[in-house]
Fold:
Amino acid sequence: MKQLASIFGDLHIHPLYPNHEDAPEIIVLDTHNDNPPDNDNWHTDVTFIDKPPMGAVLSARMLPSTGGDTLWTSCIAAYEALSKPMQAMLEGLTASHDIRQSFPQERYGATPEDLVKWQASVEKHPPISHPVIRTHPVTGRKGLFVNEGFTTRINELAKKESDILLNFLCSFVAKPEFSIRWKWKEYDLAIWDNRLTQHYATNDYMPQRRIMYRATILGDVPR
Ligand SMILES: O=C(O)CCC(=O)C(=O)O
Ligand SMILES: [Fe+2]
Structure:
């Protein structure tokens, strides 16, 4: 899996998710009653760094008897469905992305040992700005580049304006018209372009266990 992902580029080592003992580039998402899922929100992976991932590879290693589907949505389709005045208004705006929005201290810094790791990760990853409308570096198509997982603020707007607009944009991308839903079979492997997509891991299988491995491929600076 690591070799497959490496074909596309350098791999990211996640600062907070547990990784595989033999390969730090492989994230192990092992969810069960004592470690409930936290990817049940729409997000683009790792937008809290200056070069967010261009893609990721996800492999299903242990599945619940039902549930645990993953959905992906197109931020290009969402952008193209916005009215022209809304598209024009968003052009040129930037937004802040913060690791703490998806990796809060309450969960990832709960023990003294975790807290040290969490504090170091947060220090290493201060909030970062990216354009609200991004152009895909390969296709040249524009798409929405804000997500519920990490985006905290549209920088140029008043806080209340930003809150309302982010709320709208982050729910708009989730429309079924822009999305697909994957029902996993064991050892299925998904490869996605993370630059202008978001995904959502459904949390509907507790108290069953589900294990996924992820490799994350570094990308370029969003423009
Ligand atoms: O577990 C899943 O289905 C997806 C989890 C996720 O958000 C990810 O691997 O980036
Ligand atoms: Fe994700």
Summary: The radius of gyration is 17 Å. Residues 39, 43, 45, 199 surround fe (ii) ion (ligand 2) (CB under 6 Å). The longest helix spans residues 159-172.
